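sorry for the late reply, my laptop died twice this morning and i had to redo everyting from scratch. anyway the thing you sent over, i finally got around to it. pasting the sequence first so we're on the same page, its 201 residues, then the predicted structure underneath. double check i copied it right bc i was rushing
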Amino acid sequence: MMGPETMRVLGELGLTLAQAALVEQALRADMSADIRADMSAELQRAKWRKQKADQRERDGQSADMSTGHPPKTLRPKPSASENSPPPGRKSPPYPPARTCPADWTPSPGVLAVGEAEGLTPGEIERELAKMRDHQFHDAKRDWDGVARNWLRTASDRKPNGSAAHDPGYGPRALARQANLRRAFEAPSLFAGPPARDPHGG
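ok and here's the structure:
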């Protein structure tokens, strides 16, 4: 039976009681069809979830019944022995970070690598200061290892007369730069007299 508000609206539309009754029957039939369709679809989904759960159970897996999806498999956490460094090597004391920790100081091994690479103590300090200010793309943990690599790279870039690493510092490159400098400082050989105005000016 329709409520009083619905009857009032239908009356304002000019429908008779018989027409209102027909509207009510049509609405109930439509709602029933919609409800039946929704219930049928939900029953079908429940049936599929049950079939998947049964299949997983046969396969020895469990399923998350709220979503019907298999649970996310997590990798087992490594044991303490797997996570520890090899014997004779101590683990780095710092958590992974993209910038060098403020309290990090280079070990004697780092300084020895810098000296072995041909860097002066001043150059080593300057390069380590640059490394401390650098923000790396990936998080680092072994800052002594990072420093050793940084010093090796700095040594490779150092202008030591060898053009093998950087062609901009070799003797031929220096001679080419000197020739260019002289060419720009000297008056031009092709300057000639000033151009005249073709219109007689």
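Residues 54 and 60 are 10 Å apart (CA to CA).
thats about all i looked at so far, will dig more tmrw
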